[in-house]
Amino acid sequence: MAFPRKKSLLVLAGVLLLSSAYTGNETNISRLPCSDFQTASFLRGMNLKIRFLLFPSSNPSCGQLISISDDRNSSFNTSLDTKILIHGFRALGTKPSWINGFISTLHRAARVNVIAVDWVYGATAAYPTAVENVTKLALEIFHLIKKLLELGASETSIHLIGVSLGAHVGGLVGQFYEGRLGRITGLDPAGPKYTKASPEERLDPGDALFVEAIHTDSDNFGIRIAVGHIDYFINGGKDQPGCRQFLGYKYLICDHMRAVQLYISALEDSCPLMAFPCSSHQDFLDAKCLDCSDPFQLSCPRIGLLKQAGVSLSKLPKEVKVYLVTRPSAPFCMYYSLVQFHLSQKRNSVTNIEITFRSADSTDSTKISIPKQKQMGQGLLAHTVPACQMESVVLTYLPRNRFWRKDATSITGKFCTAPLPVENSEKMFCLSQNLTLTGKEGLLHDLAIACL
Questions:
Q1: Domain Lipase spans what residues (predicted)?
Q2: Which CATH number fits domain 6-324: 3.40.50.2300, 3.40.190.10, 3.40.50.1820, 1.10.760.10?
Q3: Is 367 helix (H, G, I), strand (E, B) or coil?
Q4: From the annotation, which residues make up the binding site for Ca(2+)?
Q5: How do residues 209-233 score in pLDDT, each as one tens digit?
Q6: In this predicted structure, what is the pLDDT of residue 22?
Q7: CA–CA separation, 287 vs 338, rounded Å?
């Protein structure tokens, strides 16, 4: 399909704004009985039939159908931030299964207005048809926000949260406001028909004061390019742990929907979903990116509602890729430690070591390699509890024995570790004595890492 360019979109928005029935100072929002999402059949996808449901902080479980012509008994609180949820393509024409939980979580996390955009009718039928409806939907949301601003809300208080195709809808809305809205969060922004689109045709960093994206299915339904100020590539942005246990439709969408589950978990759980800037996911796993000094000046970004994701910069760089790993299920957060082994002397072959952290409730492992004629190897160990709660470490030497050549039966060296982010060597914890590892069994040693 052909996308309208940014200038054309802005002109179209202006024309429709002037000619729309949504004009005049009498326009506002009124409280109505509780309403729910529509259900559409496959054949109704050409009918956009948009509805906006307000879930106010005063009654967060009741979706009030927004009226644009009556200001009596308004439930919209102009002093609060407003979260606008925009779902994506709905293959079966049903209400998103995650929407109620998402709304409840937002209200528990902060005192806010929540507006859910119901465009199930326009999102049903063939995916290309839903894509064709994106611009029209974005214009309707543009009008909605205009009325919120007339009520007294500020542009910076508006936070658009778009899922899949809804992320690009949010991007167009942000373009209509020339990037002045407060925040846009894209939860696995859709890839089909958007990966090769220009920034004017999709979500991009210029669409709001802060734009972030969470990528979980970049090899299938999600987009593989960076589209925000900060782009989180979860487990590399592709295959998510725990998703291979499903069959059928759940299997197909599991990776794609993980972004929604992660965001909800980040708002519900106390442990942080922290990420680190790096050139690639593999470099992150190889412990080549241990802090957030470049470009975030030591403030690592976190998924959630923190301002600018917790990054302390007056001006954010664009399209910074950040990486993290997760558990297979909620709570998804993991903690990270740099692990190192220093050989007492160089060897003429590669040295492989498995390192395992143990606590009362968890066992987490990684493998590191020390190149030949080198004395130190390091890696990243992701674990489910903080390092200071780990009780012991198990070090296992993995000799590479082949029938024509036997590896050494033992190695000697020193083990060191530090929780991430590692800004300096003072955070390193090393076992006091050299350890001798054999290829027969792992060596268990107590850990006593201080909590920071």
A1: 24-332
A2: 3.40.50.1820
A3: strand
A4: 202, 204, 207
A5: 999 999 999 999 999 999 999 999 9
A6: 35
A7: 7
Q: Which residues contact 256 (CB under 8 A, 6 or more apart)?
A: 164, 188, 216, 217, 220, 221, 222
Binding site as annotated, residues: 202, 204, 207
pLDDT, mean over the chain:
89
The phi, psi pair for 353, rounded to 5°, reads -135, 135
CB 189 within 8 A of CB 256: no
Instruction: Please tell me the chain's helix, strand, coil percentages from 3-state DSSP, rounded to the nearest 5.
Output: 25, 25, 50
The CATH 2.60.60.20 domain(s) of the chain lie at 335-446
For helices 165-176 and 134-151, give the axis angle rounded to 10 degrees: 50
The pLDDT score that the predictor gives to residue 121 is: 92
Q: Give strand pairing partners of 396.
A: 354
DSSP code of residue 235: G
* Residue 259 identity (one-letter amino acid): A
- Contacts for 85 with CB less than 8 Å, ≥ 6 apart: 99, 102, 103, 114, 115, 116, 117, 161, 163, 166
Domain boundaries 335-446, CATH class: mainly beta
Please identify every residue annotated as catalytic. 164, 188, 256
Share of the chain above pLDDT 70, in %: 88
pLDDT of residue 396: 96
DSSP string, 110-176: S--EEEEEE-HHHHSS-HHHHHHTHHHHHHHHHHHHHHHHHHT--GGGEEEEEETHHHHHHHHHHHH
Instruction: Please report which confidence band the pLDDT of residue 328 belongs to, taking 50, 70 and 90 as the band edges.
Output: very high
Q: To the nearest whole percent, how much of the chain has pLDDT over 90? A: 75
Q: Which position has the higher pLDDT, 218 or 43? A: 218
User: CATH 3.40.50.1820 region(s) of the chain?
Assistant: 6-324
Please tell me whether residue 107 adopts helix, strand or coil conformation. Answer: helix
Distance separating alpha carbons of residues 140 and 186, to the nearest angstrom: 19
